[in-house]
Amino acid sequence: MEGDETAEQCAVRELHEEAGLTGATILATSNLIYQYDFPKSYRTFRPDHVCGQKILFVYGTIGRDADVKVDNNEVNQFKWVTIEQLPRYVKRKEYLELVQNLYKEAIEKTEDRGQ
């Protein structure tokens, strides 16, 4: 997040910067947080001295006709998949479980809102 930006504002900005998407509607913010420290060997290559990351998740929608244009920097490709297809693309168990839990939470949060 930059400056006084909220997680929701950051998500909208990042969607635009990394996928060229505009017009997203924010639905909810996740209770799940993914946090990790970079290995010491990696930290020596970072001039900003960042030691790790804390990732917050925001749920939103965008039109089916949205034209995704990846930035080829932080994102180099995308594919729309169902939750059942996810294990074909996310191989690391920890990441797969995280995304599956995010999916379940998103369904619960949007059902609670009547959407």
H-E order: HEHEHH
Q: What would you give as the CATH superfamily?
A: Nucleoside Triphosphate Pyrophosphohydrolase
Q: What does the largest sheet look like?
A: 2 strands, antiparallel
The first-level CATH class name: Alpha Beta
What is the structural class? alpha+beta
Helix content: 25-40%
Q: Name the poorly predicted regions.
A: none
Neighbour order of strands in the largest sheet: 1-2
Structural notes for this entry:
The protein has a single domain (7-112), classed as Nucleoside Triphosphate Pyrophosphohydrolase (Alpha-Beta Complex), CATH 3.90.79. Strands 1-2 form a two-stranded antiparallel sheet. The radius of gyration is 16 Å and the shape is globular. The model has no long low-confidence stretch (mean pLDDT 89). It has four helices and two strands. It is α+β, with helices and mostly antiparallel strands and 115 residues long. It has helices spanning 7-19, 40-43, 86-89, 93-112; strands at 25-37, 52-61.
